[in-house]
Amino acid sequence: MNDYNPAPATGQGGISAEERQWGMFAHLSALIGLFIPLANVIAPLVIWQIKKDTMPFASEQAKESLNFQITVLIAAFISAILIVILVGIFLLFAVGIAAIILTIIAGVKANEGVAYRYPFTLRLVN
Questions:
Q1: Exposure of 29 by Cβ count < 10 A (0-12 exposed, 13-18 middle, 19+ buried)?
Q2: C-beta separation of 28 from 22 below 8 A
Q3: I need a surface site. Which of 1, 8, 14, 64 has the fewest CB within 10 A?
Q4: In this structure, are residues 33 and 100 in contact, taking their beta carbons and an 8 Å threshold?
Q5: What are the CB-based long-range contacts (under 8 Å, 24+) for 54-57?
Q6: pLDDT at position 100, please?
Q7: What is the structure's pLDDT at 12?
Q8: 101: domain range?
Q9: Angle, in degrees to the nearest 10, between helices 17-28 and 39-51
Q10: 7 inside domain
């Protein structure tokens, strides 16, 4: 677990606007997965790989987004299996709505310079 706590983005040694913007892109890029299968995982992975050496805040946010999207993928897969007993339909809907809402919240927080941590997330990528 990483204890990265960025300084507030006040312009006084805070996180640059460009780094906050890339942090926001790391979260919101996952929404591409609504149209392209698995893009919700691939997009944050690409941003993390590109920015990991130059922008620590953007890198941390991209890893957080990647971990959350992997968790969402696992939950969606389990929900799809549970469709057989009908409860999966409701679970799949709930997972989708929660993923969209939390992704937008994370994007807004990252743009404000706040290191957002998703709830109920498996931290597989460190």
A1: buried
A2: no
A3: 1
A4: no
A5: 55/18, 55/19, 55/22, 56/4, 56/6, 57/4, 57/6, 57/15, 57/19, 57/20, 57/23, 57/110, 57/113, 57/115
A6: 97
A7: 35
A8: 17-111
A9: 160
A10: no
Q: Which two tokens stand for residue 13?
A: 């040694």
pTM of the predicted protein model: 0.85
pLDDT of residue 14: 84
The total domain count for the chain is: 1
CA distance 26 to 48: 8
103 half-sphere exposure, CB direction, 13 A CA radius = 28
Query: pLDDT, tens digit, for every residue of 49-105?
Result: 999 999 999 999 999 999 999 999 999 999 999 999 888 899 999 999 999 999 999
CB 95 within 8 A of CB 76: yes
Residue 41 lies in a domain: yes
Residue 12 inside a domain? The answer is: no
**Residue 65 Cα distances to 27, 30, 84, angstroms:** 5, 8, 30
Per-residue pLDDT for 5 more than 80? no
